[in-house]
Amino acid sequence: MSFNELSLSELEALARQENVQGKTIDCLLALQSDDEEVRTWASEVLSGSVEPTADEEEEMAGLLETVLYEGEDGQSWAATAVDQLYWTATMLGRLNQVDPSTSKVLRELAESKSPALTPAAKRAQSVIERLVG
Q1: pLDDT for 76
Q2: How far apart are CA 31 and CA 28, in angstroms?
Q3: Which of 23, 77, 106, 123 is deepest in the core (most CB within 10 A)?
Q4: How far apart are CA 61 and CA 64, in angstroms?
Q5: Range 104-120 average pLDDT
Q6: Per DSSP, which regions of 21-93 are E strands?
Q7: How far apart are CA 10 and CA 67, in angstroms?
Q8: pLDDT tens for each residue of 50-94
Q9: Which superkingdom (predicted)?
């Protein structure tokens, strides 16, 4: 288990709560777990109860940028990285507004031509359209 990873029981408890704040990054990091059950529960929490805060934006944008650029080096992203990109873009889209530097990395994801990133790129494009338009 990585340093910031939530345990399976913690994720299950979060999934039963409403309006969980301050756990977005931990849930996004849990998507990289070696344990499929942890990844499944992290996705469950992200799809429901987690509400990102403006305080988490910078860290989410940094995570998006890191995962995107690491894969670009070899034009290869693991399925867990693709999920992480998708969910990070989704969480950024739940904010009322984002910093221009965050918009920049979202735009880079949206413009990706990699077939592996199509779902994440579409989500990023949708987020950009909602926040800008």
Answers
A1: 84
A2: 5
A3: 106
A4: 5
A5: 95
A6: none
A7: 24
A8: 999 999 999 999 999 999 999 877 678 899 999 999 999 999 999
A9: Bacteria
